[in-house]
Specification:
This protein is of the alpha+beta class and 305 residues long. The protein has 2 domains: 110 residues, Winged helix-like DNA-binding domain superfamily/Winged helix DNA-binding domain (Arc Repressor Mutant, subunit A); 158 residues, Endonuclease, Chain A (2-Layer Sandwich), CATH 3.30.870. Helices cover 54% and strands 16% of the residues. The chain has 11 helices and 10 strands. The radius of gyration is 34 Å and the shape is elongated.
Length: 305
């Protein structure tokens, strides 16, 4: 019984053994085995007709397939006599497959280089800039985002994901506090996976929590572990512990472009504010955050102390 993987390997080499040209090769092989030597066109044509269950193949087509098989190295053609004779054996087939494998590998390597180059170009696309340019293309002016109130943990995280996380690129800075909610464990892991993706894209991610307002010690330990895991791979993330007692802004920002502020914890409610609507508030959040962040201590330093 034929190994099913054989057909997959033929496919990788670009060979379809069900094509008529390979029936021509099969006909040469069978006719050669029957005669014990190389075969004439008439001999291989008779076997080919049998293989195709009596269906005739046009002679010009057979000659074309013979030429292709010879160019690929599957057969040898003896032109020393009046009538050409055709031969194939395992050595011819082996050498041909070696050449096909090498050519396929070279082609794959070239395609991988192209894909790698295109992937690099794709990674370098700045979505924030591109979205602005796209809006200009559509309307002739930049489409402004509107402030909005968001209620509930899932709705808030959907906005964070779409408005902040998906837009963060190389050179961007995301500032976030972790004080405002003790979210479910499944959402906690999803959030840290998203943070890892942002950091991997080259954006800076700054996170801060205050000891006097962290939801629970279990939550804090979980977040420290997640941070340590990401920090092993990337240096453009920092989780800091603030000893500041006075309550200040809770939420996050993307550069100085927009902020999301927690306004009430029960029920959990946030407000999204783009810079176009309140630049003063956005700047105030960033200024306040940076001042506190500068004095806070990195968790890695605290753990190693």
């Amino acid at each position: 019984m034929q190994d099913p993987s054989i057909n997959e390997e033929f496919d990788l080499l670009g060979l379809d053994i069900n094509e008529v040209r390979f029936l021509v090769l099969q006909a040469i092989a069978l006719a050669s085995r029957k005669s014990g030597s190389s075969v004439t066109f008439t001999q291989l044509n008779e076997v080919l007709t049998d293989l195709r269950q009596g269906k005739k193949t046009a002679k010009p087509q057979i000659y074309r397939y013979i030429t292709e098989m010879e160019e690929l190295g599957f057969i040898a053609v003896d032109r020393s006599e009046y009538r050409n004779r055709y031969e194939t054996n395992v050595q011819y087939i082996g050498k041909s497959l070696i050449s096909l494998k090498a050519a396929t590998q070279k082609d794959m390597e070239e395609r991988l280089k192209t894909i790698g180059h295109e992937r690099k170009e794709l990674d370098e696309i700045a979505i924030t800039r591109l979205s602005r340019e796209f809006s200009l293309l559509l309307t002739g002016k930049e489409l402004q985002q509107q402030p909005r109130v968001i209620e509930g943990i899932e709705a808030i995280h959907n906005v964070i994901e779409s408005v902040f996380y998906e837009l963060a690129e190389t050179g961007d800075i995301v500032r976030a506090t972790l004080d405002w909610v003790d979210i479910p464990k499944n959402m906690e892991s999803i959030r840290w996976d998203a943070i890892r993706r942002i950091v991997a894209r080259g954006a800076q991610y700054r996170i801060m929590y205050r000891l006097n307002s962290i939801p629970s010690l279990d939550t804090l330990e979980s977040r420290k572990n997640a941070y340590r895991s990401i920090r092993k791979e990337f240096n453009n993330i920092s989780l800091r512990e603030s000893r500041k007692e006075a309550k200040s802004y809770d939420g996050l920002s993307l550069n100085r472009d927009s902020i999301l502020l927690i306004v009430t914890e029960r029920p959990l409610t946030a407000i999204y504010v783009p810079r176009s609507e309140n630049a003063e508030l956005v700047d105030s959040f960033v200024h306040s955050y940076d001042a506190e962040f500068e004095k806070a201590e990195d968790v890695i330093d605290l753990l190693e102390a």
